[in-house]
Amino acid sequence: MRFARSLVVSSLFVVVLFSQASSLRAAEAQSCWPFFVFDNGLRGIADPPKLLKELGYAGMGASGLKVAGLVKQYQDAGLKVFSTYVACHVDKTPAYDPLFRDAVRELQGTGVILWLTVLGGTYGKEDEKAAGIVRQIADLAEPCGLRVALYPHTGFYVATTADAIRLADRIDRKNVGVAINLCHELMTDQGFRLDATIREAAPRLFLVSINGADVKQPGYGWDRLIQPLGRGNFDVCAFLQKLKLAGYRGPIGLQSYAVPGDPVQNLKDSMAAWRDYQKRLGCGSD
Question: Per-domain residue ranges for the chain?
């Protein structure tokens, strides 16, 4: 009797696991891209992995080098840490945190992308120095199976995706690619050339970030250029359509920097908009 009871419990456990995996695969099948949330959209939430799984997100993007524990936490929840936001400096010595060496070893085999900002220096005048620094980081990451994506950030040495492409070409490492960060492209007045940006970035595009936004006008700040998905008059769905046509199928992150309001409701609203976009784009049917 005890054996039979144990067998039933074990069978039920397997069924539950299979059901969870099937549900996750079904959700992913309805999306053209894995959709994750920046950690700045999770502040104040008691149990982020639980909420993200309930809402249908694929995981999160972290910050810093000490994230191995976080990676395991999300893996245990059936989710993924897609990236971690890190930095290097053209005008500092050392140019990057010495913890990089140990951090990449801890992240070996996880697939976490090092989302690298490049700061300092004279804008556009120190590419060779910047390239040398990023090469060092890429060479630390490569034996651990990790990739580096240059993170364009307003006001940094790599401020636009065009900057990232120019530097990545000079770096010339297979594990170094670029990102398109919609809010930073808009803030740096690159919105008019997004078609060209997507086309030029496509061969080495590792990551993309999106959010609701208004079409850039003089004087607009982050309150207009970073909103929950579905808000603002910038056509994010059309932007996603261009990514789809360019063949991009990598992860897309939800930027949530300084977005006001209840973070849980913001995530719900953004997921509702995301699902609407996926339906309009025919995702899951191609």
Answer: 33-280
β-strand partners of 114:
84, 148
- Burial (CB count <10 Å: 0-12, 13-18, 19+), residue 41: buried
In angstroms, rounded to a whole number, what is the distance separating the alpha carbons of residues 266 and 261? 7
Residue 61 phi/psi, 5-degree rounding, is -115, 125
| Residue pLDDT, tens place only, 24-59 | 454 455 799 999 999 999 999 999 999 999 999 999
Q: What is the pLDDT of residues 231-251, one digit of tens each?
A: 999 999 999 999 999 999 999
> Token pair 């696991």 is at which residue?
17
Domain 33-280 has CATH 3.20.20.150: yes
Q: Which of 149, 224, 218 is nearest to 181 (CA)?
A: 149
- CA–CA distance from 161 to each of 20, 119, 167, 180, 198 (Å)? 38, 14, 10, 6, 9
Alpha-carbon dihedral 20, 21, 24, 29, rounded to 10 degrees? -140
Write the single-letter amino acid at 122: T
Find out whether the peptide bond into 49 is cis, omega within 30 degrees of 0. no
Q: Which structure tokens are listed for 62?
A: 């972290």
